[in-house]
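User: Please run a holo structure prediction.
Assistant: Happy to. Please share the sequence and the ligand.
User: Here you go; the ligand is S-adenosylmethionine.
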Amino acid sequence: MTQSTATMADTQASLEAVIKGEVLRMYQEVADKPEGEFHFYHGREAAEMFGYDPEWLDRAPAGAVASFAGVGNPHARSDLQPGEVVLDLGSGAGLDGIIASWQVGSTGKVIGVDLNPAMCLKAQAHAEATGTTIECHEGRMEQIPLPDDSVDAIISNGVINLSFRKRRVIQEMFRVLKPGGRISITDIVSARQLAQSIVNDPKLWAS
Ligand SMILES: C[S@@+](CC[C@H](N)C(=O)[O-])C[C@H]1O[C@@H](n2cnc3c(N)ncnc32)[C@H](O)[C@@H]1O
């Protein structure tokens, strides 16, 4: 490795660490103080805008709805069936996982994975409050803490854009999916190259 590639790798590692800290802080804040000001849509207003069934939002715990921070509606095409095992990647406060758990029923299972253990605890508590279950694992989408070929479907909402290693995330998703498994994700993509000032701003990356 030359000195300049070593320096670039160091810069990338330190930016990645700062972004991870900002991601943890930002979504913890949405979960703890959903009534606060954020420069992205969240809560019931966002979910209704993305076409979530109002009956789901009435039925789910108020805390899970208020802290919803997705960017679209992964349920529109997930076609989840009773008995399926579903992974909710970056499960947050749990709204998407709870909706998935209603679809797969008591013979199925929803497994959440989240970087932030406090979010996992919130998602599990919110699920319990509606009489359903989410099994949430603390972990990173870049190294999903599940065995190969173990899930029927993956849902995710506004999470993959937060990763520094998106190719790695996709590889991991295919590793844990059973043959013939399905992916239904909503996320943010840009058709244009973003300015470096945006790319290097941890607050913008995290939101
Ligand atoms: C946009 S929210 C998810 C919204 C969620 N689907 C809902 O129903 O509200 C983003 C979540 O992804 C988690 N996250 C961010 N980076 C992650 C990573 N590298 N691996 C796993 N989870 C991550 C955050 O901790 C946060 O809880």
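The domain at 3-205 is CATH 3.40.50.150 (Rossmann fold).
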